[in-house]
Amino acid sequence: xxxxxxxxxxxxxxxxxxxxxxxxxxxxxxxxxxxxxxxxxxxxxxxxxxxxxxxxxxxxxxxxxxxxxxxxxxxxxxxxxxxxxxxxxxxxxxxxxxxxxxxxxxxxxxxxxxxxxxxxxxxxxxxxxxxxxxxxxxxxxxxxxxxxxxxxxxxxxxxxxxxxxxxxxxxxxxxxxxxxxxxxxxxxxxxxxxxxxxxxxxxxxxxxxxxxxxxxxxxxxxxxxxxxxxxxxxxxxxxxxxxxxxxxxxxxxxxxxxxxxxxxxxxxxxxxxxxxxxxxxxxxxxxxxxxxxxxxxxxxxxxxxxxxxxxxxxxxxxxxxxxxxxxxxxxxxxxxxxxxxxxxxxxxxxxxxxxxxxxxxxxxxxxxxxxxxxxxxxxxxxxxxxxxxxxxxxxxxxxxxxxxxxxxxxxxxxxxxxxxxxxxxxxxxxxxxxxxxxxxxxxxxxxxxxxxxxxxxxxxxxxxxxxxxxxxxxxxxxxxxxxxxxxxxxxxxxxxxxxxxxxxxxxxxxxxxxxxxxxxxxxxxxxxxxxxxxxxxxxxxxxxxxxxxxxxxxxxxxxxxxxxxxxxxxxxxxxxxxxxxxxxxxxxxxxxxxxxxxxxxxxxxxxxxxxxxxxxxxxxxxxxxxxxxxxxxxxxxxxxxxxxxxxxxxxxxxxxxxxxxxxxxxxxxxxxxxxxxxxxxxx
Length: 683
Description:
The protein is α+β, with helices and mostly antiparallel strands. The chain has 26 helices and ten strands.
């Protein structure tokens, strides 16, 4: 996408307990000196100097099985499950509240959840809730009608060959733009279609069989032949798509195209009908086209592919996206491929968890408003504010000491740092869902209306003043992000709670976990992508050529370091794909360490559970990334995720931290030892 896409921590969640504190983020006076280290999981048979991740987490790794309904399990999952249980209580209370006023958010939450949990009704319906959409696809008479159909399917959340988004213009953050990007694949990444290694070839075969079985369920007589043609079409789409690494360059994916020039990119696609159906016509005079060569490639594929194949493909995309909301045979078939075959997950999540997640995805801020009233009191927000301020202060001091940044760039970096906006806990202004209708007996209709509501909410921003109060995440999300177009860092309430922040513990472990996470997000303003945006969120080169060269040398070394990791035999990390997140991890923990020293105010940290303050900080980082993953899930991460897997997020960071060597007396000959000249020190 052409936008400066938000840098998310990962697709899970965290949180912060209550308790006021000083601006340094120190513990309340008189708080018990608890270390916060889960010493029961430390494996003393593994030296910290040889494998720090297993030293901290070894006994947990040996004694923990990944739950049958998960592709991975770790610290984030622990917090996510706690959050899910809290949300369940809110959602199920709403679903029982038959006296809630019609048109209230409580009624909407309750109706949506009841429509999902009514399995008996769904079994009687089968795929009939999709009949209207299937009929609309079936009645397409020529390819000119595909353009408005694609726009309509985008509106209801169906994956089609063109993606769309509304965001701030990367070169003029005072206005919104409509962005067209590559999309349309059923599998996670183009490599799943194009690479010839045995595992991916096996998954391709399973995918084709899954398409055939799914289409057979809705009565297609030639479903096996359709599946073969659909896979061939998706493979053709994959061949003209840009790689994940290419899409990381915000300059290359910023392509401003005037409306009148769109036809030159894809002459056989009816752009006028598309823009009218998308609700964009007349609202903008240009689009951002993230990958122009892809759009041209899509146009060629559109021309040479028979209409019948396009109709089969669009039927498949509709069915694939909506199978989780149909009767059990569709749910099970969808799960068997996308979870079991693709990620190794043997068992679906309990229905209530899927129902709560749907509510969260569909009407998330209404649910979040109820969530923070119960689970994020004002003292929690105050303490989070203090931690963020302390990390920002550590960054401010550190900028003046960086060896790869000269005086001119330093001045601009300080301007950008000072301009970073912070959003903590929950939004100041809540989203208005009064126009969203959700019924207790219409699950598929509810999902479509919720998708359309969100789509129109975004499209209607075009031509309007920028709303700086809006959030990209709901308050209950266990995640965090930096948004380069807005130059802001956002920490939802869901991530500001245990196990990532422990109000009863000594500060060291908190600075290693939530402090490292806060530092991670701040540092995205200065990574290889974020550093291309100025303090106003506009793409602008504010670096000197010499500083660019020095920075590039460090990032090249970091690419090489992470590219050597092989989490699954035969599958190495892509150091270029994960570069931005690796920079953030290394920078975030380094600055968190310095912020921790600031918080001590010159006093010595206590020794707790046999560990010094410096040791506890690094242990806190390793605890935060504790996780076990299924191999197929790891392969998916390696192919498509800009984050390194958790073990590598630990090991790849601490070996570059000089203070880690001092804290654990790491010396030449130890497996965790890197010679000083090989360490990549970003901050």
